[in-house]
Amino acid sequence: MKARSCANGSKQRMYLKEFDTVASPTVSLEGIFTTLLIGAHEGREFISFDVPGAFLQAEMAEDKLVLLKMTGRIADMMCEVNPAYRKHLRKVKGTTVLYMKVIRAIYGCIEAALLEHSKMKDLN
To answer: Is the pTM value of this prediction over 0.70?
Structure first.
């Protein structure tokens, strides 16, 4: 079993232009089952792997402005990690808020899967 916490991509959809594409090629469930069935019949071995931080290796387009809003304790923690961020802290209704520009794809960002796919495709 595997679980992740990620950004809420649905909130990003309102910023998409009508013909923007953000989907990466994805195999169908039927395609996976068919491949496994044929492989099992032929006695093949299967492996699975993950690329740690794959999304973080894909850069956002320079013309794309994506902001990450951090609130409360996480905003304070970012300032502990890098005190230069303190000048950007704001208080909104008593809650600490820090906005940061996203320069690399982050998991849950609506374009992240497409950016990561493009990065991996370019490695071939």
So the answer is: no
